Amino acid sequence: MTRHLLTGEELTHDEVTRIVARAGELKADPLVSQVLAGRSVALIFEKPSTRTRVSFETGVNELGGHPLVLRSGELQLSRGESVRDTALVLSRHVAAIGIRTGQDSDVEELAAHATVPVVNMLSAGHHPCQALADLQTLHERFGRLDGLRLAYVGDGNNVARSLAILGRKAGVQVAVASPPGYELEPVADAQLTNDPGEAVAGAHAVYTDVWVSMGDEETAAERRAALAPYRVDDALLDRAADGAIALHCLPAHPGEELTEDVLYGSGQAIGDQAENRRHAQKALLELLLGG
């Protein structure tokens, strides 16, 4: 049976913990696995990318495979070919398909017709690969996942949703603080509040994301005004648990969602998150491919 990663709900608790543990092994020895030797992985990018492209392309190469990077203008999708036909054709050539796109429906349709694993590299509703890397980062810093508390402060977006879903799978309590109108819907037993201080109280990690994402440019001024009280600074971090770390999935805009002192300070693990994308995604591909 072909397995996919679309939201993170597809994984069990044991599989999430296995991925995190295996990601640590792959970080220590990047070339130990050659599960993709002689095979290719199609990576469809309909949105710009730095970390996703670099981490997937490098990771597939380290697994012995060939990353086939496909930009939106290079595919017949841009000229009206169906997602279904794209899935059927790619499945004849590659071992897995990754897609970074806007509509969740495109990811779902690709998976519905592909005969190889499909990985959601980012969509409007979900960013599960980022959340897996975040869990690896937490495990590195605290030596465990079960019982940790993570506070997400800002827009209740795809990153917040994936943290809630995969955090619950790993035993991490997730709290999300957002202003009215930007709240995350009830999901995965996450604690939802409009008060950032309430969310970060006792948190082992304080997480934030950009205020103006791709596609939000027309409402940028309105979003910045609403989210300004949710900036992550040293004063907010001081309300978290002792030894709490700051997290951000990048790209960051210091002075908006967090201060420069937080972004580059000693109490952050943001660079580790960016690197761990590669290792967590390699562990995920191993799992989906039966390696």
Largest sheet: 5 strands, parallel
Helix content percent band: 25-40%
Which percent range describes the beta-strand content? Answer: 5-15%
Radius of gyration based on Cα positions? 18 Å
Low-confidence stretches: none
Averaging pLDDT over every residue, what do you get? Answer: 97
Q: Main sheet: which strands, in order across?
A: 7-6-5-8-9
Distance between the termini: 14 Å
Classification by helices and strands = alpha/beta
The shape is: globular
What is the helix tally?
11
Q: What string, H for helix and E for strand, traces the elements in order?
A: HEHEHEHEHEHEEHEHHEHH
The total count of strands amounts to 9
Model description:
The protein is an alpha/beta fold and 291 residues long. It contains eleven helices and nine strands. Strands 7-6-5-8-9 form a five-stranded parallel beta sheet. A four-stranded parallel beta sheet has the order 2-1-3-4, sandwiched between helices. Helix 4 (104-113) links the parallel strand 3 and strand 4.
Please give the structural blueprint.
Blueprint (H helix, E strand, L loop, with lengths): L12 H16 L11 E6 L5 H12 L3 E6 L11 H9 L4 E5 L3 H10 L4 E5 L5 H15 L6 E5 L4 H13 L2 E5 L13 E3 L2 H5 L4 E4 L11 H8 L6 H4 L7 E4 L11 H5 L5 H19 L3
Parallel strand pairs: 1-2, 1-3, 3-4, 5-6, 5-8, 6-7, 8-9
Helix pairs in contact: 1-5, 1-6, 1-11, 2-11, 3-4, 5-6, 5-11
